[in-house]
């Protein structure tokens, strides 16, 4: 993952505890772990976790880095979906076609209630006096 100069400076402004916490949070192996488990991995207490996220720059850095990790995974996910679609998987094919904008699930829309059909039509007529 490439870091911008701004992110590098922001990370330098983090405490050692915050850096350890950020590393633990961004590790894909820890994605479904609890706050308590993340804190144990980072060797920080829960108060440090909550103080870090109370700082806007920490939360913004975490969010940006998380989005970058997701973006890095998109290509391999797309390739997997295309491969499975080519193997005949209807569900994978459907998703690929939806993403390409060539397929939209048909939906049955129903309306309950009153719809007014009273429309006033005004036709302009030029009147000439003779």
Beta fraction: under 5%
The overall pLDDT, averaged over residues, is 85
- List how many beta strands DSSP finds: 0
> Could you give the distance between the termini?
84 Å
The biggest sheet, with number of strands, parallel, antiparallel or mixed sense and barrel status, is: none
The helix tally amounts to 6
Estimate percent helicity: 55-70%
Give the oligomer, counting copies of the same chain as homo and different chains as hetero.
single chain
The global form is elongated
Low-confidence stretches: none
Radius of gyration: 28 Å
What does this entry look like structurally?
There is one protein chain. The protein is mostly helical and 130 residues long. Helices cover 60% and strands 0% of the residues. The chain has helices spanning 5-12, 16-26, 35-42, 46-54, 56-86, 90-100. Helix 2 (16-26) crosses helix 3, helix 2 (16-26) packs parallel to helix 5 and helix 5 (56-86) crosses helix 6 (90-100). The radius of gyration is 28 Å and the shape is elongated. The termini are far apart. The model has no long low-confidence stretch (mean pLDDT 85).
In short:
The chain is built from six helices and no strands.
């Amino acid at each position: 993952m490439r870091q911008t100069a701004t992110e590098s400076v922001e990370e330098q402004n983090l405490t050692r505890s915050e850096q350890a916490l950020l590393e633990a949070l961004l590790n894909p192996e820890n994605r479904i772990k609890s706050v308590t488990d993340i804190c144990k991995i980072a060797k920080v207490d829960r108060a440090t976790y909550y103080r870090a996220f109370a700082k806007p720059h920490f939360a913004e850095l975490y969010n940006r880095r998380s989005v970058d990790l997701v973006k890095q995974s998109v290509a391999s996910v797309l390739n997997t979906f295309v491969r499975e679609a080519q193997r005949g998987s209807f569900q994978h094919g459907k998703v690929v076609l939806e993403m390409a904008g060539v397929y939209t699930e048909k939906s049955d829309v129903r309306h309950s209630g009153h719809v007014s059909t009273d429309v006033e039509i005004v036709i302009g007529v030029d009147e000439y006096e003779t």
